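Hello Y.,

Per our agreement to keep a running log of every chain we model this quarter, I'm adding this entry. I've kept the format consistent with earlier entries: sequence first, then predicted structure.
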Amino acid sequence: MEEFYVLDTCSFYSYCCKYLNLFTDKDISLDDNSLKMLHNAFNASEIKIIIPSVIMVEIFDHYFNDEEFINKFKYEVYYRLFNTDNECNKIAIIDIDTEVLENLFNCYTENVNVDLHDKLILATALKYKEQNTTLFTSDRRIKKIQRLNHLSINIRS
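Predicted structure for the entry above:
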């Protein structure tokens, strides 16, 4: 059975820090076992990696003010990970569509103040909840929403 790994922004940063030597200004937030799982997933055909589009928006917003970084990101991350010639399409950037928007209703709670981009990441993971899906996140607020709202998503940090 195909597995789906959904990444949040910090897990994507952590992967890029450890394995692609990018985002050196960030701390690695995932534990070593989770990072190894992600690294193996990028090379395993039975695991599809889902990256919510809001992660790319965050990266563009925070980092695309330096030409050197833009070029490094383009060649070391974008072309390497999102190769359009890749036949298996194992890595997907998922748009905000009506299903993701509908899932946002399940990401609300009065007790937890969570940024919209984090809710969109969780809503994207919910889109794939019927598949064998794991959300990679170290964000306590995302975990708390998942727990309080009884959302059926496996979380790994």
